[in-house]
Amino acid sequence: MTKRWQRLGNAIWQARFLYLLLIPGIVYYAVFYYVPMSGLALAFKKYNARLGIWGSPSVGWANFQRIFTTPAAVSAIRNTLEINFSRLLFQFPVPILLALLINEMRGTKWKRVYQTVYTFPHFLSWVVMSAIISNFFANGGMINTIIANMGGERINFLSNSALFRPLLYFTHNLKEMGWSSIIYIAAISAIDPTLYEAATMDGASRLQQAWHVTLPCIRGTIITLFILQVGRIMNSGFEQIFYMQNASVKGVSEILDTYIYNITFKAVPSYGFSTAVGMFKSVINLVMLVGANVVVRRMGGSGLMG
């Protein structure tokens, strides 16, 4: 054991300058990520500003029990899960499809043009996007003006509970599908061209090549991003929903992130309870991440972790 530690010490000493380069990163994560985690103690406290975090009285698991006995919190959990599982269905495959379509285009010039066009909305904030969406879908917006001019009745898109979630998925795809497709396009560009040549010689069409060559070759990338997406199952996109939400659709749009914001900044603050809700959300994300990884590995995939 002593010799092993000596060998380790010698190896570290020989690479000491490389380890020195790690120090700024270690300090950054320690100061901004690990030290603030001590604040999670609030989840088990009834916070009193005069006493501070550590001086505030402990309430045990009461804040966590309150999550499941508060109707608004239960509704927020249900909405978060429903929206995010729907995102996996209606949003996750879209960048893959876009990458396949761009890959099938002939000519590098037009590929770059379409990539730029589809990627640009990513750099607009949701404040700007929500204003654009409002101008398009409001009662007096362009879409309703066209419907009215064609003799139809105006549709209240932004205040209709049945239409709000589909609008979420559509606008998120509009904003993010180009950016999310970049990693798939990069993975496709690394595929050996001889595989396509062999498929062509075997008489495979472009669609068959995409199905039997392209998709299997980027399977590892798809699996990795899918697992990471499942690991964010309790994060529904706070900014998008926050700026598009209104009182008429709150019943179907109030998610955990907006609920935490409201109980922390808009109501009489209960920092212990809001911390408990945030901690609960993070624990569920971790469980889903590990669970998705286990399922993928048992199905024959590589997964994220050994």
- Please give the largest β-sheet: none
Distance N terminus to C terminus? 26 Å
Q: Rg from C-alpha positions?
A: 25 Å
CATH architecture of the largest domain: Orthogonal Bundle
Secondary structure: helix percent: over 70%
How many helices in DSSP terms?
Answer: 17
Low-confidence stretches: none
| CATH uppermost class of the largest domain | Mainly Alpha
Percent strand: under 5%
Provide an overview of this structure.
It is flat, with a radius of gyration of 25 Å. It has 2 domains: 1-33, no CATH class; 61-298, Orthogonal Bundle (MetI-like fold). With 306 residues, the protein is mainly alpha-helical. The longest helix has 29 residues, at 161-189. Helix content is 72%, strand content 0%. Helix 8 (126-137) runs parallel beside helix 14 (238-244) and helix 13 packs antiparallel against helix 17 (271-298). The mean pLDDT is 88.
In brief, what are we looking at here?
Helices cover 72% and strands 0% of the residues.
Please supply descriptive tags for the structure shown above.
2 domains; 306 residues; MetI-like fold; flat; mainly alpha; 17 helices; single chain
Q: How are the secondary structure elements laid out?
A:
Layout lengths: L1 H13 L1 H19 L17 H4 L6 H8 L1 H20 L2 H12 L3 H12 L6 H12 L4 H8 L11 H29 L3 H9 L4 H12 L1 H12 L7 H7 L5 H4 L2 H11 L4 H28 L8
Helix pairs in contact: 4-17, 6-10, 7-10, 8-14, 13-17, 16-17
